[in-house]
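Many introductory courses stop at the sequence. We go one step further.
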Amino acid sequence: MQKAILGSLNPFLYNALRFAVASVVVVIFFKPRENQWKSGAILGIFLGFAYATQTLGLKLTTSTKSGFITSLYIILVPLFSLLIEQTKPTLLQTISFSLSVPGLYLLNDPSSSPFTLGDFFTVICAFSFAVHVVMITKLSANFHETSLLLPQLLVTSAINFVLAPFGGSSRFTFEAVFVMVYTAVMATVIVIWLQLKHQKVVGSNVSALIYVGEPVFATIASVIALGEKVSLPQLFGMFVLVASLCLATVRKTEKTT
């Protein structure tokens, strides 16, 4: 959806306005508790660079390659979780992470073009998202989720406003405004609030593996809404991703005697 409207937009200005709208929505509907500006700003820095580099990369590369490279943050999460939280993945989680890579590759099929500058920006995006996931788990354990929501949205918006002069001109259409508002509410406020609320319960590694389902649902939505066709390798990739997701959520049960 964003790929379709980014051709005529400054990607940084788009993100800045998107997160500004999201901030207004939070103030009106969420009535945040006492905001934790320091912790929220830390989250906002990583989120800001993640979205800035993702949106810029998406403008310079194909949507399939962007989707694949961005989704690689999933396998980076256990690395940063180990470094930041000293949390090791379980055996089942390790197997799930290993399965997710070929599954993501088959689903997105990014091999059709060489590595580009857009791909490089998207790699930075993947690292930033991975750190953001881990930091959400670490910081949200100490604070109520609404106290971290507004600060990181404002910082993310500010980072992209600072970068906006380097992003070129923009031509806003009704479609672009609709997409911006929709993503501000559904893909920003609601998603980040859910992350802040529930990641501290399930942990970084399980959360990352749950996010494996995102490209699967996105593909299904594209088939239903846009009539896109899915190849046999893509279907197999979806199956592998669903299998890795199911495996990741298996919990050991202790026998009682």
